[in-house]
Amino acid sequence: MDIQAQARARCHWLPDLEGADTPRYQALVDQLAADIVAGTLAPGERLPPQRLLADALKVTVGTITRAYREAERRGLVEARVGSGTRVRSPSMDTPRFHHLSHAAEGSIDLSLSVPIPHPWRAEQLAIVLSRLSQSPHTVEAALAYSSEQGSLASREALAGWLTRQGLPMNAEELILTAGGQHADFLALQALVQPGEAVASAALTYPGMIATGRQLGLKHVAVPMDAEGIRPEALERLCQQQRIRLLYLMPEHNNPTGARMGEARRHAIVAVARRHDLLLLEDGVQFVTAATRGTPFYRLAPERALYIFSVSKLLAGGLRLGALRAPANLMPRLTAALRAQCWAMPELMARAAIDWLTSAEATPLIEWQWQEVAARQRLLAERLQGHEIVAHPCGFHAWLRLPEPWRAVDVVARAAERGVTLLGADPFCVGSQPAPQAVRLCVTPPAERARLDEGLTRLAALLEEEPRRVSPLV
Ligand SMILES: Cc1ncc(COP(=O)(O)O)c(C=O)c1O
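Above are the sequence and the pyridoxal-5'-phosphate SMILES. Below is the predicted complex in structure-token form.
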């Protein structure tokens, strides 16, 4: 047997490069991406050693090295010293998306974006559940398998509520999901193929970063300014590479608080239309109609999706969200949801939507808006003179640290004083450098006085001389 035949016999994966009209290294990467999608190559599977594959394909080792490097750049594979190059699998990723707080016992937690635990919450839900249990017709309907989108009655009630909040929608456009995070995952899983690229602001919601990694997507960071994503930077990126979907939080970016004006929204839609991008607007950090700009699905209904969740309005444990999508994308989204779980549990959806749309919920939600605004005013007072970006309806504020503070030191020093904060790292897309800033959530403390105490301790700390605290001790 000659060298090529011997090498071919030993290669468990052999791409066919014959007839490709692109350079060989490129054809090899394209074949790799196609085989990952087709399942011929499994997550975690090792690629043939470079020399062996070069012999098998009768190309230079340099061609294979270039191809493997390009595949790594596209997020298809991961190279590790000593264990070769493997198809990327979610388990290779370092988890950076922690939902639950890492706050120490007794610490003042300013690290989580959660609704204020309202004293009437449990009582209200009991009333809603009792009403529901006394309606055998509704309960009976909830016991049947529903459509993947969720029952028409639930979607109509939710669409009506959203319309009254200045987000006009109809039931046909909605899919009920298990929270906003699920809507995010569903959209990306159904509409973007492994190896394809999605883009977002360079600092974004960690759940979006985690979703991209789980699904083997390439996540491209778009440079941002005070209004968020910069359209000219997006245009440049789209000219350089194919981007399938752009993730947006135009009202109140989590974490930077950036808010997009109307002209910026129109400029982004123009780029999206030029390069055929899907737009995924995450509206989970909900704001009042009076402070909201035009949602992207109103500007570009043919390509924009919108995510809603009750998590920040009522309670995260309800796990009820919704995805608004254009009709042409609906079959792919419902097929993905069917494959996952068929549909959201209708009984839970019904209870959450009944609560949201009930007369009881209105004063509770109103109370929260007022309390959040008061807490933001308190934050502005306690941290007067510091560079802060906040929104009157925002659960968090973004504090750019004064020189010479570094975020890692402030987070460590605050923890010593019993205050838990997050720096910018968990929000950074890829290996972007993290700015020296911290996110301060105003909602986790049940009592406003406790927030006051946390902010007072932080303000005092920032008056001191930084003392470098090693993150490793
Ligand atoms: C921007 C954003 N999207 C989605 C989520 C997740 O929402 P849910 O709890 O409804 O899954 C959060 C939670 O903080 C968020 O901030």
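The first helix runs from residue 3 to 10.
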